Amino acid sequence: MKLGILQCGHAPDPVAAKHGDFDQMFARLFAATDESPDFDYRVWNVVDLDFPAGPEEADAWLLTGSKHGAYEDHPFIPPLEDLIRAIHGSGRRMLGICFGHQIIAKALGGTVEKFKGGWALGRQAYEIAPLGPIHLNAWHQDQVTTLPAGAEVLGGNDFCQNAALVYDDSILTIQPHPELRPNIIGDYLAARAGDPAYPEALIARAKDENDKPTDDTRFAGVMAAFLQHGREALR
Questions:
Q1: CA–CA dist 202, 122 (Å, integer)
Q2: Going by DSSP bridges, is the β-strand pair 60-63/2-6 parallel, antiparallel, or unpaired?
Q3: Could you read off the pLDDT of 33-53 as tens digits, one per residue?
Q4: How far is CA 20 from CA 42, 142, 162, 221, 228, in A?
Q5: In angstroms, what is the C-alpha Rg of the chain?
Q6: Burial, 196: exposed, middle or buried (Cβ in 10 Å; 0-12, 13-18, 19+)?
Q7: Residue 134, Cβ neighbours under 10 Å: how many?
Q8: CA distance 11 to 99
Q9: Dihedral through CA 187, CA 96, CA 30, CA 59, nearest 10?
Q10: What are the strands, taking DSSP E only, across the chain?
Q11: Average pLDDT of 61-67?
């Protein structure tokens, strides 16, 4: 299966120097799952206005995270929303992670906003079907606050109620970052330490929690199965 990765942003330089960009993180993550999917990866840096010709360029698609807000005025966002609608209309399956989760919801008629409750940084607990209670690393303030037509909530928590969404048999999206495994989120925390954009108490808490296990490979297995089998993978 050719998996097209739409890179909506880039990892911070200190993180990318050690771990590569998001596409490499996802390739390693999928390789670590029990599914062991045989994906042929193709990457488009849509944040830099590098776009595929259309949905037919890949069999399935994945949209990454980004430092940008889905509601912000950036040149890449309108054509990305058009592409999302075209992929959805083609019936090809699609995954969205963090910003990808948000921009898919926005492109299909939902609302994304800066959450008044602030940031989620590091290891968070979620209740997500079909896995039940799981822990994943998060790095976000924006949230999907109004669902688009056709979206169903798979799970979340008190802080982020719409953390995982499924759309019929074709789209699965999640607010946290399964690709930011503990060793990677640790380098994120080191790179962002002292940045006034992030509350010191949340950075400290995330560092304290980073020696605890996460369920990134379990959820990545669900994502890989969804790309291959659709809604059946969530039963």
A1: 8
A2: parallel
A3: 987 789 999 999 999 999 999
A4: 15, 25, 29, 21, 26
A5: 16
A6: exposed
A7: 20
A8: 13
A9: -140
A10: 2-6, 40-44, 60-63, 93-97, 111-114, 120-128, 132-140, 142-146, 151-156, 164-167, 171-174
A11: 98
Q: Which residue has 């590091």 as its token pair?
A: 122
Between CA 204 and CA 189 the distance in angstroms is 9
| Helix, strand, or coil (residue 150) | coil
- Cα separation, 129 vs 40, in Å, equals 28
Residue pLDDT, tens place only, 170-193: 999 999 999 999 999 999 999 888
Tell me which residue has tokens 């080191």.
190
Please report, as a single letter, which amino acid is at residue 78: P
pLDDT digits (tens, 9 = 90+) for 215-230: 999 999 999 999 999 9
What is the spatial distance between Cα 212 and Cα 227, in angstroms, rounded to a whole number?
Answer: 29
DSSP string over 36-90: ----EEEEE-GGGT---SSGGG-SEEEE---SS-TTS--TTHHHHHHHHHHHHHH
| Residue 7 and residue 22 in contact, taking contact as beta carbons nearer than 8 Å | yes
Structure tokens at 42: 């193709």
User: How many CB atoms are closer than 10 A to CB 109?
Assistant: 13
Determine the Cα–Cα distance for residues 223 and 52; give it in Å rounded to an integer: 22
Tokens representing 35?
């599914």
Q: Which CATH class is domain 2-119+140-179+215-234?
A: alpha beta
Could you give the CA distance from residue 14 to residue 208 in angstroms, rounded to a whole number? Answer: 21
